[in-house]
Design goal:
This protein has about 280 residues and is an alpha/beta fold. The two termini are about 20 Å apart. The protein has one domain: TIM Barrel, CATH 3.20.20.370. Helix 4 runs parallel beside helix 5.
Length: about 280
């Protein structure tokens, strides 16, 4: 079975623990280029494809990078424009942010952008209206609803596999493709990306992936940020709890990624669901 690899294409400082972490109007050290080209090498080495959820901030500054990603056979999708939490935006602000990113990316890659992922998984019960706007803007799928609940994101009773969410009593017309979770003691836990991928031992990630593939007969959706393979990145000023979440096991993350790519056939969202479900 094919699994899905996704990359949230953003810089090392794009985080949402509190509002003053970064200022989009300021200049910061550029690290996304080297980190992304390194990821592209890892993917090519293992004949893997991925969906890159591209932040508009990155696309504006590095158009050539986006073209290189597409030319390598990967899917380009939207991560919004400014890395703002959806549930802290008004409907009008969200529509404008996502519309700008979609137009920008479609101008760069010269094809329709089908998918969107919210910064920090910030489509929650407070912002489900965003799915209706995404549908209105012509997106086919969203990958923003994490089926667990944390201090920053998630909907604990959300469906764990591809589905069409119901908003205001009706199907909103867009497919939701959530990050993977594993059920244990009647609770869902994350394991397939970000903090969870870095914090959990690889053998456990392998067990969870195999069980979802073989017993639940679904692909696992992995996710990663370029900064998570960057051992020498500058450090943000964060509270201890936030610092642990953001930086734990950075030094071993790329090794885990390579093990996943070696053991599992990984592809993009677009290719995976064309093959298995014919949806996209």
């Amino acid at each position: 079975m094919q699994n899905i690899m996704t990359i949230d294409l953003e810089e090392w400082f794009h985080a949402n623990y509190h509002e003053d972490i970064f200022d989009s109007n300021k200049s910061y050290e550029v690290r996304v280029l080297d980190n992304t080209y390194k990821l592209l090498e890892d993917l090519q080495e293992h004949n893997a494809k991925a969906t890159f959820f591209v932040l508009g901030y990155i696309a504006e500054k590095h158009r050539g990078l986006i073209i290189d990603i597409q030319n390598a056979g990967h899917e380009i999708a939207s991560h919004g424009m400014s890395h703002s939490l959806v549930y802290k935006q008004s409907r009008e602000e969200f529509r404008e942010d996502v519309y700008r990113s979609k137009v920008l990316l479609e101008d760069i890659v010269q094809k329709k952008i089908k998918g969107y992922r919210a910064p920090s998984w910030s489509i929650t019960n407070k912002s489900l209206w965003a799915l209706e706007i995404l549908n209105d803007l012509g997106f086919i799928y969203d990958s923003s609803i994490f089926p667990i609940e944390t201090f920053l994101y998630g909907i604990k009773d959300a469906k764990r596999f591809i589905n069409q969410p119901i908003v205001n009593g009706r199907t909103c017309g867009i497919y939701e493709i959530p990050p993977s979770t594993f059920r244990i003691f009647n609770k869902s836990i994350g394991f397939s990306g970000g903090f969870f991928l870095r914090a959990l031992p690889y053998p456990l990630i392998k067990i969870f992936t195999n069980r979802i593939n073989k017993k639940e007969k679904n692909p696992v959706l992995f996710y990663l940020h370029p900064r998570e393979i960057d051992k020498e990145q500058p450090k943000l000023k964060l509270k201890t709890f936030e610092y642990i979440i953001h930086y734990i096991n950075i030094n071993s993350c790329e090794d885990k990624l390579k093990k996943i790519l070696k053991l599992y056939e990984c592809t993009s969202i677009e290719r995976c669901y064309n093959v298995y479900l014919g949806l996209l």
